[in-house]
Amino acid sequence: MNSAKITTDTIRQMKVEGRKIAMLTAYDYTFAKIIDEAGIDIILVGDSASNVMAGHETTVPITLDQMIYHGSSVVRAVKQALVVIDLPFGTYQTNTELAMQSAIRVMKETGAHAVKLEGGENVVATIKMMVNAGIPVMGHIGLTPQSIYQFGTYKTRADNEKDAAQLIKDALLLESVGCFAIVVEKIPAALSMELSNSLKIPLIGIGAGKHCDGQVLVMHDMLGLQSTFTPRFIRKYAQLKTVITDAVKQYSQDVKANEFPNDSESY
Fold this sequence. Notes:
By secondary structure, the protein is an alpha/beta fold. It has two domains: 8-236, TIM Barrel, CATH 3.20.20; 239-267, no CATH class. The protein contains eleven helices and eight strands. The chain has an eight-stranded parallel β-barrel, surrounded by seven helices. Strand 3 (82-86), helix 5 and strand 4 (114-118) form a beta-alpha-beta unit. Helix 2 crosses helix 4 (64-75) and helix 4 (64-75) runs parallel beside helix 5. It starts with 7 loop residues before the first helix and ends in an 11-residue tail after the last helix.
């Protein structure tokens, strides 16, 4: 486990030194505390909370107030990891003033260390303004879940020459305006290797192969808390859905059989 507080500078330096970056989502105090104590480098309070916490089909419905609630819950638990919070759909796309207000609210009301937003060339001006105001920004390109209704599919992105060239252009633009790192989602592994070699800032992949400078997964997927979403890039390091289901069944049986609580569990 690392000993020093992780900052955006730490993350940049990890790429320079060739050390891989481990990033994982969290949405509440209890899990964030466990993940932080386990030594993760970056905790992402993802807008995936819309799916795994609220049960929505996409990330689109979650609000800024809800992200601030989840973000502040996570920050209160974390002592070491860098905490990054997603700006949700509708809070930065329309104009830079709205984007600034959204980012400032997140930073002030949660105590987070950075924000993340989706897009390439189309959000460069917004990111530049945030960085100039002292707000650390992580980019996100490739598959951008907030735009799912536009694309209509979760298929691999940038799998042709034209789209790959645009992705590289987007990544270099994000770096040029001050992003400290970029998440790239569901692109060919060969392209992510080219991207990582082209960038001075870390490239963190999800479904983008092993050549990225780090990896990120949704906590619920990695821990096996759900069984319906099973793309090839998810590795389940535990089967907690089974463990929790068995525990709840046993508890219910013990209560109904009057075996819980027993004498030693009573006052």
